[in-house]
Design goal:
There is one protein chain. By secondary structure, the chain is of the alpha+beta class. The protein is built from twelve helices and ten strands. The chain has one domain: q2cbj1_9rhob like domain (Jelly Rolls), CATH 2.60.120.620. It is globular. 38% of the residues are buried.
């Protein structure tokens, strides 16, 4: 399912797309397997019960379930990704989440990142503007213009939010575009876009898949540095075993580059475990 010219133009201008009901026939199975992963992890973060006070997160989420791993082979996902990143894109990982309350404004990619990357997101509960749906600042992907650069000064990442200090408004009052979602919808957004959520409940179910352009040989050190960021989730390989073991030759195209350049993760995790009480919950605002 390739994107149309109109869809490509929209995504490249505003930084996101919504596919209404595209997985409506599969959502019951998707939800069942989502819950099965959490059951196998004792229901919450780091094999502890979800406490309904802080976000619970599992890295390599789809990678540890046969059915969820197969989603990256689905033309409804693979087609749109290929349209933007090329047929040889890298799958760069997944996380499953039980969110609690608000998520501050941030973006998932740095200003200086050379290769384009994006995220596919599934919300497994109906969410609206005041109940935790994704909010975006359309066009904020275009670093280098006054609008995007001003936004990035105020809300660059999850560890910093100066909206009240500089703009005089709370984070949920920032003018934005909410994207209500129902189970079966699929959202896709550029990692550079500024996004947040407000008003969510204490077990808001959502999981993501991340993808990036394949790196050129001269930039492999940059790829290794990017892979290093996974160590904070205490994962010792770029992918979970099931994702690899069930991979067809076609899927391996999207795994091979990270597999070839992720051997250093194990040592990084060993070091971080001496400094961290638990794996990251998904960024600075959640690890406080």
């Amino acid at each position: 399912m390739e994107l149309t010219t109109d869809q490509l133009n929209y995504f490249n201008t505003f930084g996101f797309l919504k596919f209404d009901g595209i997985f409506k026939d599969d959502i019951s199975k998707i939800t069942e397997e989502f819950e099965n992963v959490w059951i196998a992890s004792n229901g919450g973060h780091d094999n502890q019960q979800h406490d309904f006070k802080r976000r619970s997160s599992i890295l390599h989420f789809i990678d540890i379930n046969v059915f969820l791993s197969s989603l990256i082979d689905n033309p409804k996902i693979k087609g749109p990704i290929s349209s933007i990143l090329g047929d040889d894109f890298n799958y760069s990982g997944s996380d499953g989440n039980l969110y609690v309350g608000d998520t501050r404004w941030h973006s998932d990619s740095s200003v200086t990142k050379k290769y384009r990357s994006l995220k596919i997101a599934f919300y497994l509960d109906e969410v609206a503007a005041d109940s935790g749906c994704l909010r975006v600042l359309p066009g904020s992907i275009h670093y280098g213009n006054t609008y995007a650069d001003k936004l990035n000064e105020v809300i660059p990442n999850t560890g910093k939010d100066d909206t009240e200090e500089i703009w005089g408004v709370l984070q949920h009052q920032v003018p934005s575009y909410p994207i209500p979602s129902a189970p079966g919808d699929m959202l896709m957004f550029d990692h550079r876009i500024k996004h947040s959520s407000a008003g969510g409940d204490s077990r808001r179910r959502m999981f993501t898949m991340n993808f990036e352009q394949r790196y050129k040989s001269e930039d492999i050190e940059d790829l290794k540095n990017d892979i290093s960021g996974m160590a904070s989730g205490w994962v010792e390989k770029p992918y979970g075993d099931i994702m690899i073991e069930t991979a067809s030759s076609q899927r391996m195209i999207h795994l091979e580059q990270r597999l070839q350049n992720g051997d250093h993760l194990k040592d990084l995790v060993k070091e971080l475990k001496t400094k961290m009480n638990e794996p990251t919950r998904g960024g600075a605002q959640f690890d406080e």
